[in-house]
Structure formats: C-alpha cells, structure tokens
C-alpha cells in the first residue's frame, strides 16, 4: 500500500509541473484567443453551409431566394423543418406565381443545419433511366431520394406518368412518408388535375395511393400575378 501511495504522489507531483497555458495569459490575450476561436468556428460553419448549398442543386435563378420574401406559412414551415419537424408542404398556384422561388428559399434556410436537395419528379425518373447499363441501379437512385433529410420536389404533375414510372413515383413518395422525411412539393394542378395526370398510366389504385399521401401535406395557395410576364 505504501508503494502504491508513493507512486500516486509522484504522479501528482509530475502533473503539478504541467501548467495550463491559458492560465498564464493576460486578460487581453485570453480575449483575443477567444475571439480567434469564435472566428474559426464561424468560418467552419460557413464552409459547411456552402457545402450543403452546393449539394442542394438549387437552380441558378433561385440561388438568392430569401425566406423573408415568402408567405408566413412558408416561413413557419421552414423554421419548423430546421428545428427538426417532419411535416410536408404543398405549394399550389398557377404558373409564374413564385412557388419555386419560395421552395428554394426554404431549402436555403434549412441548409443552415441539415442537408437537402432540389429536384423534379421527372428529373428523378431521368436519373433512374440513365442507370440502364451502368453500375448504379435505379434502386439505388430511388433509395437516395427516399433517404434525403429534406427534399423539394418541384412541378409535381409535369413528369411522365407511365406504367413504368408510376411505381417509382409511388415508391419514393411512400418511402418518404413512412420514414417521416420532411418534403415540400410545388404544383400548378389541383387534386383532381393531379389524379387525372397520374391515372394516365392506367393504374388507378396506385395513382390514388400517391395522391392520398401527397394530400397529407399542408396546402398553401400561392397567388398573385405572373412574375415571369411582369418582368418581360
């Protein structure tokens, strides 16, 4: 026991020789060091944010979209997703009313903390087709979009609804629904228009299943003048 006690004392004496450099700093030096640390942390956060924005694939026209320009419901939704919410939102309105602008503003806001991606359903289908004859499979593309932490699906209803594509559309929307993944849609069609579009594939039951899940989203009407025509 004495040997053990002596060993512990020697260790304590050795540790006593090590001084915390921070303790030797003056108040001004400490303040400067803390300021440097804060700046480095802010730069790191900024780099991460820019990486997430690059990953998001926001179209060039909407890269400066600001949440402050959005409807109140859209602003609240963006903050809810940022805070960990898993809700869905469906922006509905005629062409040129700013639906895509608002969706991209939400995506830019969410990118402060989490990864997200902008896409169209037709774009996803095209990615699946492009895997034919390549190592990556349509299944892996599907899984990737199902698992995205946040997803904006723009212009729902513009994709080709076929016997081949409808099961993929259903799988992606159902997969995100079951996994409670926050998702935002834009469309210029009402519920009847979307259903009529989807049933062109000839599969009414699956079309109903897609629509029933989409319509669980909070629906927000985006109105006003056609911005594209207003700006020439």
UniProtKB/TrEMBL annotation:
Pfam families listed in its UniProt record: IstB_IS21 (PF01695)
Domain IstB-like ATP-binding: 89-231
Superkingdom per UniProt: Bacteria
The protein's name in its UniProt record: IstB-like ATP-binding domain-containing protein
């Amino acid at each position: 026991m004495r040997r053990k006690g002596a060993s512990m004392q020697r260790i304590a004496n050795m540790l006593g020789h090590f001084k915390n450099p921070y303790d030797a700093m003056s108040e001004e030096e400490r303040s400067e060091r803390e300021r440097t640390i804060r700046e480095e942390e802010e730069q790191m956060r900024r780099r991460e944010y820019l990486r997430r924005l690059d990953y998001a694939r926001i179209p060039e026209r909407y890269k400066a979209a600001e949440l402050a320009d959005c409807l109140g419901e859209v602003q609240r939704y963006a903050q809810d997703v940022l805070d960990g919410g898993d809700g869905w939102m469906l922006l509905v309105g005629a062409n040129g009313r700013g639906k895509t602008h608002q969706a991209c503003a939400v995506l830019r806001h969410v990118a402060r903390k989490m990864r997200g991606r902008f896409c169209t359903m037709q774009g996803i289908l095209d990615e699946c087709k492009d895997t034919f004859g390549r190592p990556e499979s349509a299944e892996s593309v599907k899984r990737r979009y199902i698992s995205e932490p946040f997803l904006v699906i723009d212009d729902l209803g513009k994709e080709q609804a076929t016997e081949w594509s409808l099961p993929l559309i259903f799988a992606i929307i159902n997969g995100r629904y079951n996994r409670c993944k926050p998702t935002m849609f834009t469309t210029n069609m009402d519920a009847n228009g979307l259903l009529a579009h989807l049933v062109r594939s000839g599969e009414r039951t699956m079309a109903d299943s897609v629509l029933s899940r989409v319509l669980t989203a909070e629906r927000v009407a985006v109105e006003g003048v056609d911005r594209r025509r207003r700006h020439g």
